[in-house]
Every structure is written in structure tokens, then in C-alpha cells.
Design goal:
This protein is of the alpha/beta class and about 280 residues long. Helices cover about 40% and strands about 20% of the residues. It has one domain: 3-Layer(aba) Sandwich (Rossmann fold). Helix 1 packs antiparallel against helix 10. The longest helix is centred in the first third of the chain and has 22 residues.
């Protein structure tokens, strides 16, 4: 049964993120479409596509989401793959996109759809490449997706690392009080329970009681995990995305096998970085 469509209300930090993704997408598509020696087939993937539009909290006006922004990028991507689990949002997105044979819209859990239907279409050996946006609202991503993207070596990935959800529901000072379901969500996102080694430490503690570490320690550990476990060659310093009060809502990661792509993302991040 289709629910009533409610557009997401987004803050300034989300509008900045959309701007960053669009800026990178334009540079990415220009490079791959204009490659002189190799004919690359490059695709755009949004795993949490939403309804295609959002409501800006600042202006109360409708603003285009990542899928609509991607469709305006020139040179055009060869294919677009949009995934959304909410049926009412999918229908609105379909209405906005219209009938296009280069756009594929999937209703379902992106963790399954990506691995089963989308990633197999982007094989490195076939000169296919993908720009993949993984922008979950919280801990709704399976590490297997990142591991497969790294293994295939054909993807550039932007990732929302949702520290607000983590701090609110998982990274408590007393780890014994955390709900088991939230621990399972964290394990799924991280890939195992080794996150505990970075969130809680007992060194220097006379009673060996686990003490919660600052968030930046966990963020850096995840950055290393993207490099050493998922196998991405380049993972620039992530960009902290802050709300109107200055609190960090999430970190925007970029991961790639390509040095040029990493430099472009790094430069874009630095233009938006708040000191």
C-alpha cells in the first residue's frame, strides 16, 4: 500500500552536500566522457534517491535532489540508477524523471539492489565506471556494499557517515545500556564489531572501565578501514557537515581508486570546509 508522500525537509548542510556532489559529478563526467584513448561507459548511482525533490528549511521552497541534479550534468552519464525503498517516493521520482531508457529506478533495499542488480553492470574489465552516492539517513547501509565497491575497483563513492545516529543510539558512555538492535545496525554498517576497539578504550584507566573516545577517533578509524579493508586507494579527509548550531550531523566521505578523482574531491571539500 502506498503511503502519503511527505517531502524531506533539509537543512543548509544537506544543500551544501548536494552542491558538492553536483560539482564532482560534472568534473567526473567531463573527464570520463572526454577520455581520448579509452571509451568509458560511466554511470551515476544514488542508493537512497528519495522523491527527487526536497523542501529547504531555509527558504521553504522545493529544491532538486541528487537524481534531478545528476540528470542535468553535462556531458551526460550513460546510465542512471536510482534506488528508493519508499513506494510513494519512488512514484514521485518516476513522475519527475519521465520515460527515459537511460534511467533505471528500483524500489527496494539498496543493500540488496546494489549487489544484485546494479554493481554487476559496472565491470572494470569492460571499461565501465560508476559514481555512487550512499547517503543513508542513519545506520541503514551494509558494509558489504562498500567492500564490494572497493573490490570491483570501478567506483568512486560518496558516503554519509552518520555520527549523529551513532552518538545518539550506539556510542553511549555506558555501553551495557545500548539496545541490541542498535548494536546490530552498527555492526552491519561497520562490517563487524571492531568499532568497539576505537569507541571505547581502557588504557590509562585504573579500573579498566571502558571510556568513550572522541568522535574524530572513530571517524579516522573508519577512514583507515575504507583503505585497508575495503581496498580503496584514496580516501581524503572527510568533510564534517554541521547543522545551524555548529554540531556535526555527519561526515561526508569520498573513496576512490583514482588519484585525480581524490584530488578533485579534496579540493571541493576544502572549499566548503568550516574552520
Amino acid at each position: 500500500m502506498t503511503g502519503r508522500l511527505q517531502f524531506d525537509r533539509i537543512g543548509n548542510w544537506s544543500e551544501i552536500k548536494l552542491e558538492i556532489i553536483e560539482q564532482y559529478a560534472r568534473a567526473y563526467s567531463t573527464i570520463l566522457a572526454g577520455h581520448a584513448k579509452t571509451s568509458f561507459f560511466h554511470v551515476y548511482i544514488d542508493a537512497f534517491a528519495g522523491a527527487g525533490r526536497h523542501i529547504s528549511k531555509a527558504t521553504e521552497e522545493m529544491v532538486p535532489g541528487s537524481p534531478l541534479n545528476a540528470l542535468t550534468v553535462q556531458p551526460r552519464f550513460r546510465e542512471y540508477h536510482f534506488i528508493e525503498i519508499a513506494q510513494e517516493k519512488i512514484q514521485n521520482l518516476r513522475d519527475l524523471v519521465g520515460d527515459r531508457n537511460d534511467v533505471f529506478i528500483y524500489e527496494g533495499d539498496c543493500n540488496q539492489v546494489l549487489l544484485r542488480d546494479v554493481f554487476p553492470r559496472v565491470q572494470y574489465s569492460q571499461y565501465r565506471r560508476g559514481l555512487c552516492l550512499l547517503d543513508p539517513y542513519g545506520l541503514h547501509l551494509d558494509w558489504k556494499v562498500l567492500a564490494e565497491a572497493g573490490r570491483m575497483k570501478s567506483f568512486e563513492v560518496f558516503l554519509n557517515f552518520p555520527v549523529a545516529d551513532m552518538n545518539r543510539n550506539v556510542f553511549w558512555r555506558d555501553p551495557e545500556g545500548v539496545d541490541k538492535l542498535d548494536i546490530e545496525r552498527m555492526n552491519l554498517f561497520w562490517g563487524d564489531d571492531s568499532w568497539r576497539n576505537f569507541v571505547y578504550q581502557t588504557s590509562g584507566n585504573f579500573f579498566e572501565y571502558p571510556e568513550k573516545q572522541p568522535t574524530h577517533v572513530v571517524v579516522e578509524a573508519f577512514r583507515e578501514r575504507l583503505r585497508k579493508v575495503a581496498g580503496f586507494s584514496h580516501v581524503p579527509d572527510p568533510l564534517p557537515m554541521r547543522n545551524s548550531k555548529g554540531a556535526i550531523v555527519y561526515y561526508l566521505f569520498f573513496a576512490s581508486q583514482n588519484q585525480t578523482g581524490a584530488k578533485i574531491a579534496h579540493d571541493i571539500f576544502n572549499r566548503h570546509r568550516l574552520h
